[in-house]
Amino acid sequence: MIRMFLKERVSWILFFIFLQLLVLAMGYLDTSVPFTSTVYIAFISCLSFVLFIVARYGKETRFYKHIHSVEPSFDLTTIPEANSPFETITHEKISEQIQVYKNQLDKLQTDLEQEKDDILNWIHEVKTPLTTLQLMIERTKDPALRSQLMYEWLRIHLLLDQQLHQKRIPFIQNDLYIEKVDVQKLLFQEIKSLKQWCMQKRIGFDVSLETIDVLTDAKWLGFISRQLLTNAVKYSEDSDVRIRCTSQNGITTLSIEDFGQGIAPRDVSRIFDKGFTGTANHPNHAATGMGLYLAKQVAESLLITMEVESTVGKGTRLSLVFAKENEMIRMTRM
User: Fold this and answer.
1) What does pTM read for this prediction?
2) Looking at the 3D structure of the chain, how many domains does it have?
3) pLDDT beyond 90 at 274
4) What whole-number distance in Å separates Cα of residue 172 and Cα of residue 298?
């Protein structure tokens, strides 16, 4: 800040130095004025000027030091009071600009809330005819047609469910309820919902759960499991999906492993990126690249670590590593 202060006033300093040199030159050229007295006057002037600069530095930089040190914020109380006309102008303009941005932000947030509510209402409205459609499909007598219709119905249902949870994720902290969750019951419900799809692709499930209960949020864990199971079924055929749940040193791990096409090594680090659908031939044009991204967002809110292991042509294992119970209890108290 000292360098900036001196740089700002370099023209005044140079002008003062010029005046002192002029006084010394006049004392040297004018024999009627003792040169020693001229040097003494110049010395006293320079000393006074230095003391003046030091005193003004503290007063004139206080306002700008405060502005430089505060964190970016729309809080008007963080702006210090002005001590000079120029500082007053700066203070007023900054305050006005912040107020404009704050008003714009409030409007955008209100519009976003309204858009979220509208989409959520629309999704709930669509679910009613979707449920009716499911009942109509179940009454279809042709097994092949019924299976195909149920598969397409399930795709619509999963996309709507994904969209519903996507809109809720920004506000997930308001929707968490941490409790003991029966993993077996939750998984079997999710597997049952995929029954028609699994039958069509001839996929079974090999489930072995050493640990049954985990401390987490049932609804959001169900959403994560749904995304992982959907991916496992989507990229597999004529094989089983292996599900394991183990616990070691107080840490529970739930893994879902398929034996499908696997993930290319160059893609493994990107599968949780928003909109990423893979680079290996893009066989599934219907993929949105949102499932694992959303699952990752939810997992982070639940203190769950997601790990992936994959080999091309052999399959993929996605694991959920749950936080220790004391960490979850600590989160509920925040």
Assistant:
1) 0.68
2) 2
3) no
4) 8
